[in-house]
UniProtKB/TrEMBL annotation:
<protein>
    <submittedName>
        <fullName>Uncharacterized protein</fullName>
    </submittedName>
</protein>
Length: 103
């Protein structure tokens, strides 16, 4: 059984011709809409860009705040470690050791 792959050149030429006509029609429609003012920046794009800029600013501020929270958390954890060590030493004077741990 022999299979072949053939290209219908005439069908391709017809499709190419239709695409050219469609592109010309599309271009003419766009020109017409532009001429009557139907296609222009009606402010939606500028509003979007304004909101985008605000989001980027908020994200930057959030990252800075997160950095401060992380630093404060680290400082707090350090304080907890120090204060529990001081508490252990202070309470050790009044508690009797029971094996490896305090009870």
């Amino acid at each position: 059984m022999t299979e072949s792959l053939e290209i219908d050149r005439q069908a391709i030429r017809e499709a190419a011709s239709r695409m050219v006509v469609l592109s010309e029609d599309f271009d003419a429609a766009l020109r017409g809409l532009t001429e009557i003012g139907a296609i222009r920046d009606d402010g939606l794009l500028s509003g979007f860009l304004s909101v985008l800029a605000e989001c980027l600013t908020e994200a930057s501020e959030m990252r800075a705040a997160l950095s401060h929270v992380m630093a404060a958390t680290g400082g707090g954890l350090g304080f907890v470690a120090s204060s529990t060590e001081v508490a252990d030493v202070a309470s050790g004077e009044y508690l009797e050791p029971r094996g490896e741990s305090w009870a």
